[in-house]
Amino acid sequence: PPDIQNTISIEIPFDVLKEGVNTASTIIHDDDRNPLYNCISITIEKGEARFEAIDSLYRRMIVFSKSCKHTGEGTFFIEATKTKRLLSSFDSTKDVEILISANHVEFLMDNVSVAMRLQSGKFPNCDSYMPKQYLTAVKFIRQDMIMSLERAKIMAEDQKAGFKSCVLSVEGNMIDINLNTSLGMLFENVLCTQKGDNIKSAYRIESVLDALKSMNNDEVVVTFPKSTICMLQPHKPTGYTYKCLIPAVRLNDGSEEEKK
């Protein structure tokens, strides 16, 4: 690896780094035209590690934070997919030492040293985009929604990429899932606890599934600041926070595009 001088030294548990990179990477597209959005922003400070990622193709954002013991503080941007694959090749229970210089980051773990180039540029503050107020909030069993959306995904398999969406309607403590494709139609509902207005929006099936599968809690809360966007987060998480912002899509004249 390159000689790294004038470094910031940080130590955190390896499993925290691995979990954070894996979670944030779920929305990354390797073919993204902006190299910055192939990266994860990692900030380690004040007793927690925070991982942020942006999907500029589908306008999703993830912020994942986990409490941990650490020495040193710092922020850096690292390429997402290869870092995820690299960390997956280790099964360590020890701390990982991270050395950050102006152009590189070096990981020291299990007698292995790996240095990678840092991504230059200014990464947006994803947490500032996460809504604090909402029109509607629903709480439901995570696995119930995953199973329903997996069925919707099967029905939409033959659709073009831009058409793999379903309509979600919230009314009377029920989430109705409605999908109409060339294969046929699907309609089912998922029980929920509703707070606020009734609402109806369309979302990419994969976008919602990615977020649900990234969580560990049995219950999930989805808030709708308006009909054009929603935020998913676990209900009463312990020791971590997770927020995923997903924009709605609209269907008209046989085409689909993101709502502005």
Give a topology summary.
Layout lengths: L7 E6 H11 L14 E7 L2 E8 L4 E8 L6 E6 H9 L6 E6 L3 E6 L2 E6 L18 E6 H14 L9 E6 L3 E7 L4 E7 L1 E4 L2 E6 H9 L5 E8 L2 E6 L5 E8 L1 E4 L2 E4 L2
Antiparallel strand pairs: 1-6, 2-3, 2-5, 3-4, 4-17, 6-7, 7-8, 9-13, 9-15, 10-11, 10-14, 11-12, 15-16, 16-17, 18-19
Helix pairs in contact: 1-2, 3-4
Task: Provide structural commentary.
The chain has about 260 residues and is of the alpha+beta class. The protein is built from 4 helices and 19 strands. The chain has helices spanning about 15-25, 80-90, 140-155, 205-215, and strands spanning about 10-15, 40-45, 50-55, 60-65, 75-80, 95-100, 105-110, 110-115, 135-140, 165-170, 175-180, 185-190, 195, 200-205, 220-225, 230-235, 240-245, 250, 255-260. The protein has a 9-stranded antiparallel beta sheet with strand order 5-2-3-4-17-16-15-9-13. Strands 1-6-7-8 form a 4-stranded antiparallel beta sheet. Strands 12-11-10-14 form a 4-stranded antiparallel beta sheet. A hairpin with a 2-residue loop joins β7 (about 105-110) and β8. The longest helix has 14 residues, at about 140-155. It is elongated. The termini are far apart.
